[in-house]
């Protein structure tokens, strides 16, 4: 009897454990609210953008404003510290809503802010001044619509960090993706212009549409962009003998052979861990090409070895 009682108690305990496990498995996942960044200045404003500082992970930049054109009243950019959720470390007020923010990589004290009226401004968060160090108000190429995204991009000039140059890239509702370079002021050049693509049944119809289309109607507003993490392509070279084959080299250390109608690489070469800056086919052989990085030149003969 004692053995039977012990076995029954053990069975009951197992059943209770199973019931507890089944109850726990049905409990929905939840997130515990630790703290929030809020003050009198931010009341009534929408949060439009966020960016963590690259050097100081305790510092968070937040952009505030209104998204609708008719709702524009005021804008605000704040630098919040995790150590003080009651009041921001820096505040930058504006009559226009803030639509984008991003901290510089090479100079983490520089904060780029994009506004609903198309202005791009750069603030030095190390200073107590609320005025921007630079802004695009004097630039003849400034955006004519809201700046929906800003991003600092490092461009490789060599293999060391000292050779990197940083540019600021913006995308706007005016259909332009622009790069901003800090020289004497903010100098702007367009990387790309976005245009609306209309589906046409014939070439003649497309020609008529182009002729009758107003310039402003062809612009397509841009909302966001992303750069490929492997870096830019530095050179493309067509094979002088096989006209549907070409070479490319890029910052991802690779040389790739492509065939014109194939989206996947035909052959890929990654001989070193250096950026490949230049390539050239031999004028006398369709198998031979040269590749150059910062420290050496390589000659490849595909007829012998890949």
What is the mean pLDDT?
82
Spatial extent as radius of gyration: 29 Å
- Biggest sheet strand order reads 1-2-3-4
Q: Determine the number of helices (DSSP H or I, runs of at least 4 residues).
A: 3
Secondary-structure-derived class = mainly beta
Helix content, binned percent: 10-25%
* CATH arch. level architecture of the largest domain: 7 Propeller
For the biggest sheet, the summary is: 4 strands, antiparallel
Low-confidence stretches: 158-162
| Percent of residues in beta strands | 35-45%
Question: What number of domains?
Answer: 2
**Fold-level CATH name of the largest domain:** Methylamine Dehydrogenase, Chain H
CATH secondary-structure class of the largest domain:
Mainly Beta
The number of distinct β-strands equals 19
Q: CATH H level of the largest domain: which superfamily? A: YVTN repeat-like/Quinoprotein amine dehydrogenase
GO cellular component, one term: dynein axonemal particle
Protein name: Dynein axonemal intermediate chain 4
Subcellular location: Cytoplasm, Cytoskeleton, Flagellum axoneme; Dynein axonemal particle
WD repeats: 276-306
Question: What layout of secondary structure does this protein have?
Answer:
Layout lengths: L1 H25 L19 E7 L6 E7 L9 E7 L8 E5 L3 E6 L6 E6 L4 E5 L9 E2 L11 E9 L9 E8 L3 E7 L3 E8 L9 H10 L2 H4 L14 E6 L6 E6 L4 E5 L7 E3 L6 E6 L6 E6 L3 E5 L5
Antiparallel strand pairs: 1-2, 2-3, 3-4, 5-6, 6-7, 7-8, 9-10, 10-11, 11-12, 13-14, 14-15, 15-16, 17-18, 18-19
InterPro entries: Dynein_IC, WD40/YVTN_repeat-like_dom_sf, WD40_repeat_dom_sf, WD40_rpt
GO molecular function: dynein heavy chain binding; dynein light chain binding
Subcellular location: Cytoplasm, Cytoskeleton, Flagellum axoneme; Dynein axonemal particle
